[in-house]
Amino acid sequence: MDVGAKIKYYRELRGLSQKQLSDLSGIPLGTLKKYEISNRNPKEEPLRRIAAALHISITAFDDIHFETIGDIAPYLFAISKLGDVQFHGKKTDDGKFDANDLSISFKSPVLKHFLKEWADSKSIIDHLRNEAKKSPDTTAKDYLLNRADEIEQELELRMVDSQMLVKQQKK
């Protein structure tokens, strides 16, 4: 999803019209429309104003693609610094972790709460989608899938909207 599509996505998630976002951000309506259809890419300052008006982090507009472990590693290290990652699992005879029995957790109470909210919601979403697959009734199937999508969007908005600070662990 490009930046323009993300602006539109978060604007609609907030239930705002283009005019309302224009007013809140101070970005001219015509310019905002060009951003949303990707005729123009916003520079950093207008993007910051749009993010502030949407009450989201500017990083929500980042275009992140993971194709290799090297693409993921910097994010994992950054998360580790904020959340104080802990590794759990069985160890082999040489004292190293067994890759097939390895998990992580975090000391940060804020990050733990975030992950709990995500896991609880994902469990509900997965359940609704599984029930929809089993349902022979197309009306029920559509309802279940729509509800799963609504919960997923609500979750994303709550999580992206979160302004809770994760304190960096002292070394």
Protein model, in words:
With 171 residues, the protein is mainly alpha-helical. Helices cover 60% and strands 10% of the residues. It is built from seven helices and two strands, in the order αααααββαα. The protein has helices spanning 3-13, 18-25, 29-36, 44-54, 69-83, 109-134, 138-161, and strands spanning 85-91, 97-106. The protein has a two-stranded antiparallel ribbon. β1 (85-91) and β2 (97-106) form a beta hairpin. α2 (18-25) packs across α4 and α6 packs antiparallel against α7 (138-161). 13% of the residues are buried.
Which sequence of strands runs across the widest sheet?
1-2
Query: Residue share in helices?
Result: 55-70%
Write down the overall geometry. globular
Could you describe the largest sheet, including whether it forms a barrel? 2 strands, antiparallel
The radius of gyration computed from the alpha-carbon positions, rounded to a whole number of angstroms, is: 20 Å
Write down the secondary-structure element order.
HHHHHEEHH
Q: Strand tally, please? A: 2
Contiguous uncertain segments of 5+ residues:
none
Computed structural class: mainly alpha
